[in-house]
Design goal:
alpha+beta, Aspartate Aminotransferase, domain 1, 4 strands, 17% strand
Length: 87
């Protein structure tokens, strides 16, 4: 199976969409689909990010990046890159 940018983006986009839908069901804010990348999702919590959240997620093997008042979620695993496409 050949790696194609469109196929990889489509697969990751489907995963990102599911995460965004779940976040919305929990009352969390995300950018509209048209304004986000297929492999990244920013999530904003209504009351801000609790200081304990990153450590609590890490204990559950959930790794995210805190960016200001948002949580950045990537659907690409750093240990197993999905694709590298220099431009």
């Amino acid at each position: 199976m050949a790696w194609e940018v469109e196929k990889v983006a489509g697969t990751l986009g489907t995963i990102t969409d599911k995460i965004a839908e779940g976040a919305a069901e929990l009352g969390l804010a995300t950018a509209p689909k048209i304004n986000r990348a297929s492999h990244l999702l920013g999530v904003t919590l209504p009351g801000g990010i609790p200081k304990s959240l990153p450590e609590n997620l890490s204990r559950q093997n959930i790794f995210v990046s805190i960016r200001g008042d948002s949580i950045r979620i990537s659907t690409i695993q750093k240990k197993k890159p999905v694709a590298c496409c220099p431009r």
